[in-house]
């Protein structure tokens, strides 16, 4: 079976393309947002094929997996087939509502022919999905292994575009936490934070994907200061690495980090004390990280993720 899917979220798609199908990924000469093609920093199987837009019109497509509102029109334009009408389709919603949580209507809320697949139960609850059928398929993580050593008395933070995303990802909180622990801030365009007051002892590290996990795992703990995004894959990856986590109690975090696997709170004093505690007690950090890894393996394993998608795809194809 051939599945058309755009390369939008590399970490999520890396797990998705481990399934049993052929995945057709659009590619354009400039490799822009609508034509990134195959990943260059993740390992993808040979079942992922790049196709330019002009070849999609003649390609056999059994299922369309959409992830952005404009892909509805783009798919029809490039393939000559309408998602949900001429070809079965699903829409993966990766994000929380951008507007008010109670009043934001989903772009597919008026359609009943394309299921909306949310990546967390929190997201499904908060979006106004209208009459669109909804499913939840939680994230699946390809296990990087228990790499944590905690040799460096630092806290790891992972965020892409921290300047642009600002309060959404808790960028404004970094100077506060930097007074408690030196931070390694990983992610794309983190260099734009250099020179910010309060971050003088922090290291901004935009690393290739293959170097990210070992570098994170050398830090004593993982800090997740995110206010309002979907459940961050970096949080789950840190847990898989065996890192103890300290996180704001927002969106789906409480579900992902059970008792004993880290500290989840919206109180600054509780969060700051937790950071200090992990820095001061490596053995406590190790035990908590082991519990975090076990919890993440039990809920966010790759096999469960692929099985959930296999079930849904069969239902949609019927």
Short summary:
With 318 residues, the protein is an alpha/beta fold. It has 12 helices and 13 strands.
Outline the structure in words.
- With 318 residues, the chain is α/β, with parallel strands linked by helices.
- It is 33% helix and 18% strand.
- The protein has twelve helices and 13 strands.
- The protein has helices at residues 10-16, 53-56, 71-79, 121-126, 162-165, 174-178, 209-217, 233-241, 253-256, 268-280, 282-299, 302-317; strands at residues 2-5, 22-26, 48-51, 63-66, 89-93, 116-118, 134-136, 152-158, 183-186, 203-205, 219-224, 245-248, 262-265.
- Helix 3 links the parallel strand 4 and strand 5 (89-93).
Placed side by side, the strands forming the largest sheet appear as: 3-2-1-4-5-6-7
Measure the end-to-end span: 14 Å
Secondary structure tally: strands:
13
The average pLDDT value, as a whole number, equals: 96
Structural class: alpha/beta
Question: Element order, helices and strands?
Answer: EHEEHEHEEHEEHHEEHEHEHEHHH
Rg, Å, rounded = 20 Å
Number of helices: 12
What fraction, in percent, of the residue positions are helical? 25-40%
Broad shape: globular
Key phrases:
alpha/beta, 12 helices, seven-stranded parallel beta sheet, globular, single chain, 318 residues
Helices and strands in order:
Layout (H helix, E strand, L loop, with lengths): L1 E4 L4 H7 L5 E5 L21 E4 L1 H4 L6 E4 L4 H9 L9 E5 L22 E3 L2 H6 L7 E3 L15 E7 L3 H4 L8 H5 L4 E4 L16 E3 L3 H9 L1 E6 L8 H9 L3 E4 L4 H4 L5 E4 L2 H13 L1 H18 L2 H16 L1
Parallel strand pairs: 1-2, 1-4, 2-3, 4-5, 5-6, 6-7, 8-9, 8-11, 9-10, 11-12, 12-13
Helix pairs in contact: 8-11, 10-11
